Amino acid sequence: MPHAPPTPPSPEPNHTAPMTTNRTPNLLPDGSDSPRLLISAGPTHEPIDSVRYIGNRSSGRLGIDLADTAARAGWPVTLLLGPTAIRPIEERVHLVRYTSTADLEGCLNEHLPGCDILVMAAAVADYTPARPDPNTKLRRVPGKPLILELCPTPDLLAGCSRQARSDQLLVGFALEPRAELINSAHRKLERKKIDLIVANPLETMESASIEAQIIASPALRDIQQSTNGQITKAEFAIWLLPTLLEAWTLKKARATSGAR
User: What whole-number distance in Å separates Cα of residue 216 and Cα of residue 197?
Assistant: First the structure.
């Protein structure tokens, strides 16, 4: 009669294994509703004619990871997503698609009043064709150069700052060469009159990882964080959300008390 195989020993606990819970911990504020999060992500496509456009290489991955992580934590999330091949996994994310800077501006005007935190992670074009023609295709003329006139696009984040309530948290991104990064982030923070800037080096643009430092406005000067090196974009989302929650809680309290 064959013997039953011995019962294998219980495995040792693995303290380095990733968590498999479907909710990110410590992201639900005590005694109040979760903040309503509005995220923009991905590139803009500025039309030249019916088939051509000016675009950029943004994948939207960072904003999508942020939206998925926040939704798993129970936050109401609206994601304004540009023309990308990827999309959020979480069905709880309210997805709104845009194509051009003008489209995104309309989406922001519609959805900004209903959010508590805006994270402007979209890579918005600085210039757009002055006279786009969406109904025709430009023809090549041999030996003749094509001159394309461009005009600046509106500063969407600065526009949001002018419309925002005193209890809304506005967050931007600064993507610059490493040598210019921190100075540029401070200038952008002051010029756009927003609360936080996530500064990350241009060298990480198309990487699966990100290295970031948070620069805060004087009113939130205690909110200073750094990733201290590169982390994946999914890890970055988990790293960033508690800071957003802390900053929003502080700003909301200041707005309630009438502090400036």
Answer: 6
CB 116 within 8 A of CB 167: yes
Task: Give residue 164's domain range.
Answer: 37-127+146-257
Tell me the one-letter amino acid at 138: L
pLDDT in tens, 129-142: 999 998 999 998 99
**Measured between alpha carbons, how far is 195 from 236 in angstroms, rounded to an integer?**
19
CB 169 within 8 A of CB 178: no
Q: What is the pLDDT of residues 89-123, one digit of tens each?
A: 999 999 999 999 999 999 999 999 999 999 999 99
All residues at 6 or more sequence positions from 248 whose CB lies less than 8 Å from its CB, including other chains: 35, 116, 117, 169
Looking up residue 81, the CATH number of its domain turns out to be 3.40.50.10300
Distance CA 156, CA 47 (A): 18
Q: What is the pTM of this model?
A: 0.87
**Distance in angstroms (rounded) separating the CA atoms of residues 9 and 190:** 60
Digit-coded pLDDT (tens) for 182-215 = 999 999 999 999 999 999 998 777 778 899 999 9
Q: Which candidate in 14, 56, 183, 200 is catalytic?
A: 56
Residue 23 near residue 240 (C-beta atoms within 8 A): no
Is 56 an active-site residue? Answer: yes
- The total of structural domains in the chain comes to 1
Residue 24 domain flag: no
